[in-house]
Every structure is written in structure tokens, then in C-alpha cells.
Amino acid sequence: MTGRQTILGRTLRLARADVDALVDRAEDPQQTLDRLVRDYSDHIREAERAAATALGNLRLREADHRRAAGAADEWGAKARAAGRRADELPAGVAAALAGTFDDLARTALERQTTAESAATAAEPLIAAQTEVVERLKQNLDAMREKLAALDSRRDAARPGVA
């Protein structure tokens, strides 16, 4: 998470940077604008890679959550089926096999509980990861807007451009 926090912090700082003040104080505004455009482009590529990684990790967590929830449903159905089967046994056979079906139902319920716990534990992680991905996307959009403004300003400041 530290790597994501670092890139998130950097994208936020770059999106909020006062580029105009930096260019106005520069000895050679054209050279400064060229360097800023290059640096912003590099930072955007790095942030895009981080956002793609974070999004990929989010999708993996979501898939794990879906699998755990599906497993919980499946184990619940198996527990119900074992209980029904025990109830459907003929009277003479019921006494001999009732314990076996009870054990099967109990085991299925334990596995259902384990799968439900795994699904529940994943939910806050998914929510946090979703928030990080959304903030990265917002910061990337702000950085792209700032890069477009820098490009426009750089093009307007070029000699021979009216």
C-alpha cells in the first residue's frame, strides 16, 4: 500500500502544482515549459501504470470475493441437501444413517461459515482499493488537463507562433 500512497500523493501534488508561477519566475520560459511537459508526461505514464496495477488488484479482489460468496452459497445448499436427505430416509435406515447426514450437514455449514467470513473480510479491502483507484483516476485527469494547458502555453510561447 505504501507504493500506491506514494504515487497517489505525487499525482495529487502534481495536479495541484502552480506551474504558472514556476514558468513566470524562470530565466528561459520556453526551456522550462519543455522540461515541465516532459516531466508531466513521464509522471502521467508512471501514474497510469500505478492506476492499472491498482485496478488489476481490485479486479482480483473482486473475483476472490465473488468466489467466496459463491462457495458460501454452494456449501449452504449442500448442508440443506444433507438435511433433506436425512429427513427422506426410510424409518429403518434413518437411525443408522442419520448421524452420517448430520455430520455432512455440520461440515457443510462450517465450510459455508468459513467462506462467508472470507467474503465479508474482503469487502472493506475492496472498498478501500476502489477509493484508491478512483482518486488515482481523478488525479490523472487533473494531470492530463494541466499537461494540455502546458502544451498550449508552450506552443503559444514558441518563437514564430502567433
Automatic annotation (TrEMBL):
Gene3D superfamilies: Tetracycline Repressor, domain 2 (1.10.357.10). InterPro entries: PspA_VIPP1. It holds the Pfam family PspA_IM30. Transmembrane segments: none annotated. Keywords: Coiled coil. Residues 126-153 form a coiled coil. Belongs to the PspA/Vipp/IM30 family. This is PspA/IM30 family protein. It comes from Streptomyces synnematoformans.
